Amino acid sequence: MPFKDFIERLSDVKVQKGDIPVWWVYTVGNGGEIFYKGLKEGKIKGSYCENCESIILPPRIYCEDCFERIEKFVDVEGPFVVLVMTKSYLDLDGNPLDKPQKIALIGVPDAKGGIIHFLDPDTDIDTGDIVVPFFNKNRVGSLKDIKYFTIKK
Question: Which terminus of the chain is more exposed, N or C, with fewer CB under 10 A?
Answer without folding.
Answer: C
